[in-house]
Amino acid sequence: MEPDQFFQRYLDLQRYVGWTHEDAERIREVAGLLEPHFAAFVDDFYAEIERHPEARKVITGGAAQIARLKGTLTRWLQELLAGCYDADYVARRWRVGWRHVEIGLSQVYANAALSRLRGAMLLALEKDWPGNRADSVPARRSLNMLLDLDLAIIEDAYQTEFQRRQMQTERLATIGQVAGGVAHELRNPLNVVKTSIYFLLNAKNISPEKLATHLQRIDRQVEMADGVITALNNFARLPIPDLQPQRIDSLLQEVLDLNALSPDVQIQTDWGTPSAEVLGDRQQLKIVFGNLIRNAREAMPDGGALRISARRAGKDVHLVFEDTGTGIRKEDLSRVTEPLFSTKSRGIGLGLSITRAILEKHNGRLTVASEPGRGTVVTVVLAAAAERDVQSGSEK
Asked: What is the spatial distance between Cα 52 and Cα 226, in angstroms, rounded to a whole number?
């Protein structure tokens, strides 16, 4: 976020709480009453920190650091009551929140510390108020608003910086996981290719049958490695979908033709009459359905049944993929669409992640229900193609 954006956010927060120029004027008027107490406020602030290990742990420089911090807090109080709340003021407040992340101070303790400081300031204001204490209510209200605004900016900065660092850490962790997964998935086919090449280079009098066997093995392993790279590309560079009316029957039949199932797997289909139509990107939906069909196939190594059905439900189309495979454990169900999570001994766990990402770009959704030993039911919900979409699509 840019400095001007910080300031605009602050102005918006001022409007939200009803802050006015009169509030700023009241703060300037009470500054003289509170300034004699600054040293006591600051001493109490850091004395309380000393009593709380979680807050104290960020002070690693001993007495010299505390002396510097006391000077910083004194300047913070002076700026707070000066009555000038411009872009520079907001930027300095923002840096306080950023610094809390930098030193590892939990925002919980920052909130508690400001609450303690607020209490001390309000008590001093009430004690030293020159007239009727009831007349101090507007000033106390303005001081409370000002402290709330400061806390809002500090918290906003803290959350923004914390989330940025968290995302950076997660990205690095993800890169490490992806690198490990890709290395594992590519090493196996490369080892097979290397073994076959070594044989072909060193064997004498290779029979045509043996030559064909090794060439086919190399071809299969190269195809497997290419599949890993394709999966990564699909996940990393998912384009905005080109939404067009798609007939479910022709689309799914095309995907079934591309993903041959074992003769031991019975396929049952029910597209509806007439076939349901959805709005979607044909190539991306082929990836979605291909992933689901391959998952079902791999879950039924000894054969079984795969039933694919589609039905209209209001403005949506529900597509259900139901297999009689091995099923998924209950504790794994909530994680099956996470990147790099896989229930298979082989696989980098991107198939359902890509599927979910594509469906989200289509404003669709995916649900998975499963029971070990009985099979899995995956439901895909997509927007139905309206009549005008179908007519428009047929004119192209």
From this structure: 56
